[in-house]
Amino acid sequence: MDGIVTYESSSSDDDISKQDTAPTQLLKSSLIKSIDVAPVVEHKDEFLSLVPVDPQSHELIHNPTYEELFAPSFGPVNPFKSEKQLAPKNTLTGYVEEAHVNKFAFENQHRTFMTYGYAADPSVEGGADRRLVGETESMTENEGEVDLNICTYPFFKYSLTYPTNTSIKCL
């Protein structure tokens, strides 16, 4: 029954619509500045066209320009790290590059170092300037000899000792 009581005729609807438009006209005053609540948003395609290059990744999914490839990386920098700690590295202790090392030469120098305490300097590329690193006292005793010249593993050199005349008399 409440619905019938609140029901109005069509003529009263026209009056209500006229009353609703009056307050909106007051809000559109020239003295009140209009405020745009929504910020200006750039088009989505502009953001999608710029794909950042990850310096930690070793592969590219797209063909970047020179500017994109060598652009500085953005983000916070830890102020408590030194330059060495911020340098790019692929292991915990630094940057390791693959290198070809002859297995025989490596084992030879490793055994020499373990036996005598010195080995050939790996930073020098062969030639006449062959430098040895390690214990200098052992180098002078062994005259820079490598372990391979001394040890014939698994068959070590042995020498036969014969009893001397004094040891024969004691026996």
UniProtKB/TrEMBL annotation:
GO BP term, pick one: mRNA splicing, via spliceosome
Cellular component, GO annotation: catalytic step 2 spliceosome
An example molecular function term from Gene Ontology annotations: mRNA binding
PANTHER family tied to this protein: PRE-MRNA-PROCESSING FACTOR 17
Listed name of the protein: Uncharacterized protein
